[in-house]
Amino acid sequence: MYRILRPILFMMDPERAHSTILALMASIGRLAPLRELLCRLYRPARARPVNIAGLTFPNPVGLAAGYDKDCTAWSGLSCLGFGHLELGTVTPRPQTGNPRPRIFRFPAQEAVINRMGFPGRGAEFARKRVPPRGSSPVRDRVILGLNIGKNKDTPNAKAVEDYLACQGMFIDRVDYFAVNVSSPNTLGLRQLQEKTYLAELLRDLIAERDRLAVDLVSVPPIFVKLSPDLTDSELDQALDAITGSSAEGVIATNTTVQREKLIVPDPGQAGGLSGKPLRDLSTTLIHKIHRRTAGNLPIIAVGGISSAADAREKLEAGASLVQIYSGLIYKGPGLVRELVEQL
Question: Residues near 343 by Cβ (< 8 Å), separated by ≥ 6?
Fold first, then answer.
C-alpha cells in the first residue's frame, strides 16, 4: 500500500505530508475497530523482548523523536509494530519553531534535512494526550518515551527549569525521558552537552525525578540524546557527566550538520541531516560510547537505519535498541515489521 501512497505524499510539501499522515494515525488511534485492524495487519510474527534500564521493551525497534511532537498520534502509531515510541520534543511553552519551509527530502540518498526548531503546542497540551501509565491496555501496549527540550528564548543558564517543568508534568505518564541537548536547530542548545552544564542538568533532573517518583510504582529512567558531531574530547566530557550521574543511558545520535556524505550539489539548506548519510557517523559514535563505557551504559541507536542489516550494524556496535525516522518516510510502515522479525 505504501508503494502507492508514497508518490502522492512526495508530491506534497514534506511538512504537509507529515501532518497528513500524523492526522490519519491520530484518527485511527481514536477508533477502536480501525486501531485493532491496523494492529492485526502490522503485528510482527515474532519479536525479541529487550530488558534495559528496568524496562522490558516488547521488541528492539522504536520510533525516534520528532515524528509525534505533540503526542497526538501515539495510539495509532503503536499499532505499527513498534516496541517503543519516543514522543516530542516537548517544550514547556508553545512555540512556532523556525520559519517554513524547514524540511527537505533528498530521495536519491533517502536523506532528510530539517531545521524545525522544536515547534509544538507546549507541555500542557501534550500532557492531556498521554494517559497515565497503567490506565488502559491501549496505553500499556507500548513503551512511551518523552523527548524533552528547552524553549528557544530560555537562556542556557536557566535551561534546567524547562527540563524540570516537562519532567514534572509527565512523571506519571511516560516510561522514560530523553533529555535533548543535541538538536542543531535551537541556537546554543548543543552547549548543554558540555560537562559542567550537563552534569548540573542531570543532577537536578535526577534528584527531582526521584523525589516525584516516591509514590509511583516505577521510576522513569533518563536517557541523554547526543550529537554525532561531538569531537572525541567533547564526547569524553559528555560521558563523564552522564556516567557520573545516575542517568540510565544514551541515545545516539541526533541529526548532523555535516554534509560530506550528502552527494548532491550544495543544497544550501541549514539544519540537521538524517537518513542514510548519517548511518556511518552514528554507528561510529555508538562504537566509541560502548568502548569508552565498557559496555555498561545502555545505548539506543538512531541514524540511517533503513534495513535489518543497518539495524544489526548498530546492535553489533553496542546498542541495545534502535529507532527509525527517515527510514519510515522512505520505506513506509512495513519497515517496522521487517526489522522486528529479523532482529
Answer: 48, 59, 60, 61, 308, 311, 312, 315, 322
In the chain, where are the structural domains located? 2-342
Cα(79)–Cα(222) distance, rounded to whole angstroms? 25
Give the cell for residue 317: 556496535
User: How many residues are given for the chain?
Assistant: 343
Cα–Cα distance, 68 to 105 (Å, whole number):
18
274 is catalytic: no
Residues contacting residue 141 through CB under 8 Å, at least 6 positions apart: 78
- pLDDT tens track for 184-238: 999 999 999 999 999 999 999 999 999 999 989 999 999 999 999 999 999 999 9
The residue from 75, 78, 183, 227 that is catalytic is 183
Q: SS3 for 208-244, per residue?
A: HHHHHHHHCCCCCCEEEEECCCCCHHHHHHHHHHHHC
2-342: CATH number: 3.20.20.70
What predicted TM-score, i.e. pTM, was given to this entire model?
0.97
